[in-house]
Amino acid sequence: MTVATSAAILNYSNGALLRDGVEHRVLSGSLHYFRVHPALWRDRLERLAALGLNTVDTYVAWNFHQRRAEQPADFSAWRDLERFVRLAGELGLDVILRPGPYICAEWDNGGFPAWLTARVGTGLRSSDPLFLDAVAEWFDDLIPRLVPLQASHGGPIVAMQVENEYGSYGDDGGYLTWLRDALVERGVTELLYTADGPTDLMLDGGTLPGVLATATFGSRASQAIGLLRSRRDGEPFICAEYWNGWFDHWGERHHVRSVPSADATLAEILELGGSVSLYMAHGGTNFGLWAGANHDGALQPTITSYDSDAPVAEHGAITPKFMALRERLTEFTGVLPPAPPAGPSVLAPRAVAVEHGGALLESLGSAAAGIPSTRPMSFEQLGLPSGLVLYSARPRLPRGSTTLTITGLHDRAQVFVDGVPTGVISEETGSLELSGVGAPVELQILVENQGRINYGPLLGQGKGILGGVQIGRRLVHGWTMRALPLDEWSPALLRQLSSTPESVGARSSGSAGFATARVEITEPADTFLALPGFRKGFVWVNGFLLGRYWDVGPQLTLYVPAPLLTSGVNTITVLELEQSGDRIEFRGAPELGPAEEYVETFDDE
Q1: I need a labelling partner for 2 at 20 to 30 A (CA). Which of 113, 252, 279, 436 fits?
Q2: In what side-by-side order are the strands of the sheet with 412-417?
Q3: pLDDT band at residue 602, thresholds of 50, 70 and 90?
Q4: Is residue 399 scored above 60 in pLDDT?
């Protein structure tokens, strides 16, 4: 017989999950507080309850709270995790916390602060003392905030996860043991569990003796339960992440999962006696520069939307998938859930002309002081978590054609010679041809961090130019770097940079640079922002960095939640990297691009 610790409100005995001694199923949905505007937390949680769920689970994103090492962690406003947990409890939901420190989640750097991964290097997610010391300091701040919110103290937290899918990364059992002990020593008394893909390889590396082992998958539930029971007889079957949808990368199609497919696997999990968490129940948005990236031979940056074809859409709408899964859960529990809140109101569609402002290079060149260095400096050396770096040098180009090569480029470089765009280099291409006349030129390279890798062995990889820049076989020396943290720009700086061409350099219509639209709104409501004619860049709403856009798709509109708008004049600011359009459009529905069916499966590996 296997029994969990008696202090926890969630317990188990002989394969049955118990809540306060009564047999129980966890019917959970993932909703990340950092992907939902805090003014909408209650609305989205109410929608989860209306779906028929009894629990909400969320990751805790360390980098969202502590962007820079020298700054204390922030738990205020949007980062008020304790408020989110209490709010869930007020609505009758249990809460499962997933404090990491690694979370994946298609979130920048898997939730790790950039300063941490730069500091510890290959010691990440291991027993390396440098890494553990940093995690201990973070947990010293985080966990005492959560302990009073545990069920044993009258709060809604009923379980916490130890790390996240560690078995697909490493096999340092000492690290997992240290994490478990770190949680317990700081006062965690509720159920602890691990979560891994349902393969022997992943369960070998990610599970701990005496800690409940759960699985993450999108299909083949019977295969998963068979494997878990062969290894952990007496433990309840829990699908800690049921992937009823999937996320998207730029340049791919929009991933969806059909309602019959999603419903069938949920039914299978329930029929097998399992507990489940829908990943995602509500996906939300990768606002700002928080979207992560994967790497499968090439970088795969994640789009701004995290809709994930979830039952509750990115803007809170109730979907056919919501209705089908609600019916399934109601049939299972025999309890009719509360009615969902009314659908979100949406602004009437309209087009608004933009005013072209400062030119790209002139504006960005004025945004930050130059930092000189013999060799190019990386984002990490510049203390820059995300955004852009503008590199400048004055090499001599030989007569005729020559090759410009960038080694260790992460992620995307736009190359300019004497202010003229000459091409784009990626990590995969690495070089382009230039033409010279035997004279020095002003070489400028604008490098975009497209999102830090959040999964796999390249987690923590640096950004910027990590190697060197060559003209032919000759290295270029004598660089000036300008670090451009777009998501930290003040409203005043943004206004200055996006001002008229006369103040920051001449600019022709349609070229790269800033553009501004001003629109009067009587009553704020949700809207979906489209940028026809624009190619690639970033957009702010009333000084808030909404996120990236890119015409490679699949995402065609950006969700603008009503709380970002005000009654009166609203300002939309666009930084276009390649070619500007002449208007922005508010559309009446999201457009996430051409869809394709995607169901994640595991083969034993």
Answers
A1: 279
A2: 371-373, 479-484, 388-393, 443-448, 412-417, 420-426
A3: confident
A4: yes
Max alpha carbon distance in the chain (Å)? Answer: 82
Q: Are 505 and 514 in contact (CB under 8 A)?
A: no
Which residue is associated with the tokens 């852009």?
A: 388
3-state SS, one letter per residue, for 496-539: HHCCCHHHHCCCCCCCCEEEEEEEEECCCCEEEEECCCCCEEEE
Residue 501: the pLDDT is: 57
Is 261 exposed, middle or buried, given 0-12, 13-18 or 19+ CB atoms closer than 10 A? middle
> Residue 545: pLDDT band by 50, 70, 90 thresholds?
very high
φ, ψ at 383 (rounded to 5°): 70, 30
- How far are the Cα atoms of 99, 118, 259, 320 from residue 325, in angstroms, in the given order? 28, 43, 8, 9
331: left (phi over 0), alpha (psi -120 to 50) or beta: alpha
Distance CA 77, CA 592 (A): 29
CB-CB contact of 165 with 104 (8 Å): yes
Q: Do 531 and 578 contact (CB within 8 A), yes or no? A: no
Give me the mean pLDDT over the 61-78 stretch: 97
Neighbour-count burial of 339, counting CB atoms closer than 10 A to its CB (0-12 exposed, 13-18 middle, 19+ buried)? exposed
pLDDT of 280 over the 90 cut: yes
Place of tokens 């995969």: 428
Residue corresponding to tokens 């276009």: 576
Q: Which two tokens stand for residue 484?
A: 């451009």
Q: How does the average pLDDT of the chain come out, rounded?
A: 96
Residues 6+ apart with CB under 8 A from 499: 357, 358, 514
Inter-helix orientation angle 320-333/259-271, to 10°: 20
Phi and psi torsions of 322, nearest 5°: -55, -50
Q: How many CB atoms lie within 10 A of CB 522?
A: 8
* Cα distance between residue 572 and residue 549, in whole Å: 14
User: Are 157 and 150 contacting, i.e. CB atoms less than 8 angstroms apart?
Assistant: yes
Query: What is the distance between the alpha carbons of residues 543 and 340, in angstroms, rounded to a whole number?
Result: 32
Tell me which residues are annotated as active site. 165, 241
Does the predicted model carry a pTM greater than 0.90?
A: yes
As a whole number of angstroms, the distance between CA 397 and CA 492 comes to 39
pLDDT score, position 2: 42
